[in-house]
Amino acid sequence: MQVSVETTTGLERQMTVVVPAERVDSDVAKRVQQTARTARLDGFRPGKVPVKVVKKRYGQGIRQEVVGEVIQQSFYEAVQQENLTPAGGPNVEFNNDKEGEDFSYTATFEVYPEIALADFSSVEIEKSSAEVKDADLDQMIETLQKQQASFEDADKAAAEGDQLNIDFEGFIDGEAFDGGTATGMDLVLGSNTMIPGFETALDGAKAGDEKEINVTFPEEYHAENLKGKDAKFNVKVNKVSQQILPELNEEFFSKFGIEEDNVDSFKVEVRKNMERELTQALKAKLKEATFGQLVEVNAIEVPAALIDGEIDQLRKQAIQQFGGPDANIDPNMLPKEMFEAQAVKRVQVGLLVAEVVKANELKVDEDRVRTTVEDLASTYQEPKQVIDWYYSNQEMLSQIQNLVLEDQVLDLLLDSAKVSEVEVSYEDAIKPAAPAAEEAEEEA
């Protein structure tokens, strides 16, 4: 077998493979003989069909089958021989497939980049710390109460937290537009469900009031035809309802799985959940910042095949998040551009983390795996059952092992970087990090 490799652009390789004619033709001949022993054709007894007849009838299909197997086997042998690591399947073109002549094909594919990790000791990482204070706890409990709140009609001027029932019609340049009309819609002031300026203009409104509200649609509004457009809304307030918060009693506590009629016990559980969420948020942001710096100091090219695979995963995740697991939506309907930047970043991080693992010969810390599983299980009523389930499900356990290995990489990088701690509020700590593009715009 002869193999030649050419670098076309970046990570793309073109590999030409020449397989001796004997290897293909002999396999075809054996397969024809096997078929002749089982073939059933009119005019011939079973197993007595002449080889020539079988070859004429089935020869082309048999050759295609053999060629497919030869390509699969020889491609693997060739990349091993040339020390190549394909990142995705090849695009194969035949050069010669004539019987009696050497079989030849060209495979075009991408390879994984060669990575030489940069020194991480000069990298500066800001590590946030925070704690759940009593004021944060009180605010969280109030938020939980608001989630369970009811509304009662009130003869009063509307204020933040009140619910208005309204009719409205919107106009742009004097013309009504699609989606700009509603009747009997409930709107809680301060919920920020409407475009900026709409809710604030209704502050102080009373039942029976009619208002003209002038607002501007944001530039990033989802409807392309409304982005940045000035609009006028004619609004009628049908009624104003005052928010009634539920009492902190046994009925309220039971909605959160707490059976005791005890405010202090409820607060303890809420604080535990807040502290758990805080720990996860701080860790996620630290990992995001650290891996972001890892990408920053290691400029690597990534294979398009891996990016496309990651985009497919992100599309599926988006469908599940917004449409549910049973959503009958083709993920390919979502534009590729929506996920491209995120996919590139994820592939870069994945390749670099794998290289850190390889360079430092890291092995999964099984004690940390056990601790992680136990922490996850502690949030369930039957922790032992959850632990047993993870350890009996290799796929789920592998996911935990991968996360732990990521954490080990994070620890190693932080040990070598310049880390400074900064204290932040609970609210800022759990707030999702702004996308890099947004941060760049704010700095500009």
From TrEMBL:
It is found in: Cytoplasm. It catalyses: [protein]-peptidylproline (omega=180) = [protein]-peptidylproline (omega=0). GO terms for cellular component: cytoplasm. Its EC number is 5.2.1.8. The keyword Isomerase applies. Coiled coil: none annotated. It holds the Pfam family FKBP_C. This is Trigger factor. The keyword Chaperone applies.
